[in-house]
Fold this sequence. Notes:
Elements lengths: L7 E7 L6 H8 L4 E7 L7 H6 L1 H13 L4 E4 L2 H5 L2 H16 L3 E3 H11 L4 E6 L6 H9 L3 E7 L12 H14 L5 E4 L10 H8 L3 E2 L1 H12 L11 H5 L2
Parallel strand pairs: 1-2, 1-3, 3-4, 5-6, 5-7, 7-8
Amino acid sequence: MASDTWRGMVGMIKPTKGSASLVEMIRMLPDGIGIIPLFNNIRHGKIEEFRAAIPVYEEKIAELAEDRVDLIHAAGTPPFMLLGYKGEQEIIEKWEKQFKIPIFTSGTNQIAALKALKIKRFVGVGYDFEDTSIVVNYFTAGGFDVLGIERLPVPWEEVGRLSSTEVYYHVKRLFRKHPDADGIYFQGGKLRILDIIELLEQDLQVPVLHPGVAQAWEIQKRLHVRQPKTGYGRLLAEMP
């Protein structure tokens, strides 16, 4: 055990290179938790790229298993949501049996976080799919009522350049169309929006699921750590 990973070591596989989401997530983690990051090379956010990525994820899971990490996070909603809710469960079960290490995906992480926040009916924004029904179908199969998922009005490669205030405006407009929503969902980690999570929760009086915050929350839960942190919304502040 390394002296700086006394609370646990996590292997993480990111779908793309160069995203600031990994840095953000690490900053939210308590001291004593280490991350070994590996990266896939998805470049254009096309469905065929995501479908082709599953065997690459398996190769990297095998690599992290050799490093004897305590937990593996296969990040990225598109590759696994394309398998469907049941298909994702089956491949996680297969990998956990094969590699003897607990594994979670972005989809299973987000479902767990939605349940922890007691969100049942939500609206959200995404950007990874040409067809947002893939996201809707996944969460519907998971037992949620998806009132609306809208793609942000920029190409996949450009979405990280949107300002957080632009995203705030878009989400607030969507929420007003569905006043019976009891939560807000953000699909992917390319958005730089940590500064508006608490603002949205305060202004709209519903919890917000941010993918990076959800990752930091589940890593703590899985490693039996509980160190709440304010500034990022209810999930990390309350650690439900």
